[in-house]
Specification:
Length: 154
């Protein structure tokens, strides 16, 4: 069996990798989540009140967001401390999915029973923006992790 030169130094470097990588990944993830959240807010229609834009938020920890109509994960696999859920909608704004995907023409019920609703066209603000930026987010996180490992190795 061959002996490893500077074994203690190598073991010390290997032990330092997880905390440094975790820290670098979390910073890159936070930066990416902020970027995606702001881009989704910018793409969301203003509407009369602006409540839809205000309802777009991020939740750390990967848990399900209560009352959200739409949500997407950044870093969804693995460690819940390294995952962010970006969502649109809250207890006041329960129509984000209707804006995103549109509605079909239908006959109304309730107060205006029997009247026809012409439907609405979809305004894709959430998922198109998320899909456009997720590759950049993954690359940013990958570069940060690689850089942290190289810094420890040197």
């Amino acid at each position: 069996m061959a002996k490893l030169k500077n074994r203690e130094s190598a073991l010390r470097k290997l032990a330092a990798i997880p905390p440094a990588v975790r820290s670098a990944a979390k910073q890159a993830l936070a930066q990416s989540a902020d970027e995606i959240t702001e881009a989704i807010r910018a793409a969301a229609p203003q509407g009369k009140t602006g409540k839809l834009k205000k309802s777009i938020a991020q939740t750390w920890g990967g848990g399900k967001v209560r009352y959200s109509s739409l949500s997407g994960n950044v870093g969804e696999k693995g460690d819940p401390d390294l995952s962010v859920r970006i969502s649109a909608g809250n207890s006041e704004v329960r129509y984000a999915h209707l804006v995103e995907f549109g509605t079909a023409p239908h006959i109304n019920g309730g107060l205006f029973a029997g009247t026809e609703h012409p439907g609405t066209k979809p305004v894709g603000f959430f998922f198109p923006t998320y899909r456009r930026l997720r590759r950049r987010a993954r690359a940013r996180i990958s570069r940060a992790v690689t850089k942290a490992i190289k810094q420890i190795a040197n």
